[in-house]
Design a protein that fits this description.
Two copies of one chain form a homodimer. With 263 residues, the first copy, chain A, is of the alpha/beta class. In chain A, 18% of the residues lie in helices and 29% in strands. Chain A has seven helices and 15 strands.
Chain lengths: 263, 263
C-alpha cells in the first residue's frame, strides 16, 4: 500500500470561511463540524513528496490540525488573499539556513507574492527561522517528487487562475480546481473521463466568479468524471441539506476529509 | 459602569504562534489554554467605539472567538506579516457599499498594506462584501471615538514600529506596545507613572528585536508603571513556570484575557 497517494482537505471554505463573521444563518451557527470551513487548501502526500496547494490565512492552523510536519513544495492556484496570505507561516518548514521550500506559481501569482512578501524574495532574509523560497514559474507541466503536475487554466474573475492535474507514471490520479467559473477547452480535454475530480461548487445560487453546485454537477457529468468532490463552499451550503440532493457520484467535501488514490 | 473601557487580548503569541508547527516542547504540547497563543492583537471597546490593534493572519478566528461583530477602526503597530496578513478579513465589517473602516498606520506601514492588498486601495473594489478602507496616516496624536490615541515610537528591528497610548478626556488609560526592543526617550516620558501598561515580553532569553521578560520587567519598573501585562510570547514562555517568578505587579497575559480601565 506504500504507493498510495493521500489527499487531505485542509479547508473547504470560500474567501471568508464558515462561520462567517457576524452571520447568524443556520450554517454559520451549526454545530456540525462539516459545516465549519477554513479557507480552501489540500495536502497531498505520496511515498516521495509532501505538498500543499495554496497557503491561505488559516495555513498555520491547518498544519497544526492535520499534523503536517514536513513539506517539500507549495503549488498556488492564484493570488487572491484567501489563497496566499498565510505564506509567511511556511517559515517553519525552512528553519535551517540551508533549507528552501519549492514554490510553483504563474508569473502573475509570483509577482503578487513578491509584492506582499518582498522580504522573502529580496535575498536578505536567509537566516535560520526565516522563510526561504525557491520560486518556479509555471509555464507547463512540471514534476514534484514522483508526481507529474499539469496546470489547468480556468476562468475565475479577473485574476489568472489555474487548477492542477496530478499524474504519476502517466496515470492520471486526480485534479484539483478550487476556484473556477468555467474551464477552458484545453483543460476539459485533459480531464475527460478522469476518475477523481475535486471541483469548485460554491453554493446552490449562481455566482459570477464561481461554479454553483448545479453548474459543477453539470460540468462533472460533461467530463464523465468517475467521482467528484465539491469544495470552496460559502455558508449557503448546508452539508446536511445539499449533500443528499446530489447525484450518487458527486459529494460535498469537508475540512479534514482524507481520500486516497493511485495503486 | 457604562464609561468603562474593555480590553480583550485576541492573541498573545509571537510571529509563529504557539503551538509552533513541528515543535514538541513542553509548552507547544501543553493542554493549558494559557499556553496556546494566536498572533498578538487586542480589541478595545468603549461606550463610543470598537477598535482593534493589528490584523494578523488569525484575525478571522479571533473575531469569531471573541464575538466581535462591530468594528469602527483598526490601528496598526507595524507591517510585519504577523500583524497585517489578516487584513482582508476586515471585509465583513464593510459589507454594505457605503461602509468604510478607518485604518490608522504610519506612512511606511500603509505603503506595505498597499503593496500587499492593492485591490483594497486602488478604488476599484467598492462593491458590497468587499473591504473598503479609509486610510489615515499617523503623524501624531489622533482621536477615535471618545479615545485620544498617541503613537509611541519604539525600536523593533528594521521596520518602523509604534505602540499606542490610549487616553480619554486627558486621563491616560493604558498603553499597548507589543513589539519593541527599546523605547525612545520621548515614549518613556509619555508613559512615566502610567497605571496600566501592556508590553512585549517575548521570552526569558534575550532577543535582538524584542524585550525579554526580564528586560520588560526592568522597563516597567523604570517607568514606575502601576500594573504591567506582558504579551507577544514565544513557546519559551510556560505560563505556569514563568508567571510565578514575576514581581507582584507584572503579569503574563493570555488569549481571551479581558481587562477594564477608566472610570
Amino acid at each position: 500500500m506504500e504507493t498510495l497517494v493521500e489527499i487531505t482537505f485542509l479547508g473547504t471554505g470560500t474567501s471568508i470561511g464558515v462561520p462567517v463573521i457576524g452571520c447568524d444563518c443556520a450554517v454559520c451557527t451549526s454545530d456540525d463540524p462539516k459545516n465549519q470551513r477554513l479557507r480552501s487548501s489540500i495536502h497531498v502526500r505520496t511515498p516521495e513528496v509532501s505538498l500543499i496547494v495554496d497557503t491561505g490565512p488559516d495555513f498555520r492552523q491547518q498544519c497544526l490540525r492535520a499534523g503536517i510536519r514536513e513539506l517539500d513544495a507549495v503549488l498556488f492556484t492564484h493570488a487572491h488573499s484567501d489563497h496566499i496570505m498565510g505564506f509567511d507561516d511556511l517559515r517553519r518548514f525552512t528553519v535551517r539556513e540551508e533549507e528552501e521550500i519549492a514554490i510553483y506559481a504563474t508569473r502573475e501569482c509570483l509577482d503578487r507574492l513578491h509584492a506582499a512578501f518582498t522580504y522573502v524574495f529580496d535575498g536578505e532574509n536567509r537566516y535560520r527561522g526565516y522563510l526561504k523560497a525557491a520560486a518556479h514559474v509555471i509555464r507547463g507541466p512540471f514534476r514534484v517528487g514522483d508526481l507529474e503536475v499539469t496546470p489547468l487554466p480556468v476562468i475565475h474573475g479577473k485574476v489568472e487562475t489555474i487548477g492542477f492535474l496530478f499524474s504519476r507514471e502517466g496515470e492520471r490520479l486526480f485534479a484539483y480546481i478550487p476556484d473556477a467559473k468555467e474551464l477552458h477547452e484545453e483543460s476539459k480535454s485533459l480531464l475527460a473521463g478522469i476518475d477523481l475530480l475535486i471541483l469548485d461548487g460554491l453554493q446552490p445560487e449562481p455566482h459570477w466568479t464561481h461554479l454553483s453546485s448545479g453548474e459543477a454537477v453539470a460540468l462533472a457529468q460533461e467530463l464523465a468524471a468517475g467521482t467528484t468532490w465539491l469544495t470552496h463552499f460559502s455558508c449557503r451550503v448546508d452539508y446536511r441539506i445539499l449533500g443528499p440532493t446530489l447525484p450518487a457520484n458527486v459529494h460535498l467535501a469537508w475540512d479534514g476529509l482524507r481520500l486516497t488514490c493511485g495503486t
